[in-house]
Amino acid sequence: MEFTSFSWEINSKEDPSIPQDSYFDDCFSIIFRFTKELIQITQSTNFPSTTSTANESFLVPSDILCNFRENTAFLHETFSSVPISPEILDQILPVIGETARTILSHEGCDSNMRSIFVNLYVTTRIVIEDSDFSQFVNLLERSKIDEQDDDVEEQCAICLEEFEHGIEDSRVAIVRTNCSHLFHECCIFRWFRRCADRQSPYSCPLCRCNIFPTSQRDE
């Protein structure tokens, strides 16, 4: 299950890192700062979050920004590359417009003050349940050991117990990975959970190849 929350704040201040000649008297510089936090949760572990950030800047004419209600379509097109929904942008535009009007209303406003920072925060929590791991296991091929086959593994590399020849019931089910290695079904289930706890790929315990094709897992 996935849960996403969204928040934002807008402020205006002089940014000395932006060169003076990058400003125009009749434009505002709108700087979007997008921060995305991913938190993965299993039944046994809450992971440290991973965070990524991205910045994107736009020059928008002052009259369009201050009269945002009459220019909504234009502003949606201008900010179309920002990774937010149109509904969220509709909430943000009035605040950007009012901020622009406030800046212009100050007497003696310098052009290098015409920057508006839109800080966007998205937090996604992914809850991984045992049923998800069971679905992954069900994608694997069921197999049984032929005692006449000298090339097949004799034991599960996870629990180090020997496979029982010719048995294919649910108690000791054996599964074959995409790389043709064999494991007990219950062992590979625990391996999936361990991979999730460590936020590592679902790779084979023996050769580190993908346990199953990505396209198959995404179905």
From TrEMBL:
GO biological process per UniProt: protein ubiquitination
One GO molecular-function entry: ubiquitin protein ligase activity
Superkingdom, natural source: Eukaryota
SUPFAM superfamilies referenced in this protein's UniProt entry, alphabetically: RING/U-box (SSF57850)
Keywords, ordered alphabetically: Metal-binding, Zinc, Zinc-finger
Keyword Manganese: no
Pfam family, one: zf-RING_2
Domain RING-type: 156-208
CDD domains (UniProt xref): RING-H2
PANTHER family: RING ZINC FINGER PROTEIN-RELATED (PTHR45969), RING-TYPE DOMAIN-CONTAINING PROTEIN (PTHR45969:SF9)
Name by which UniProt lists this protein: RING-type domain-containing protein
Organism of this sequence: Arachis hypogaea (Peanut)
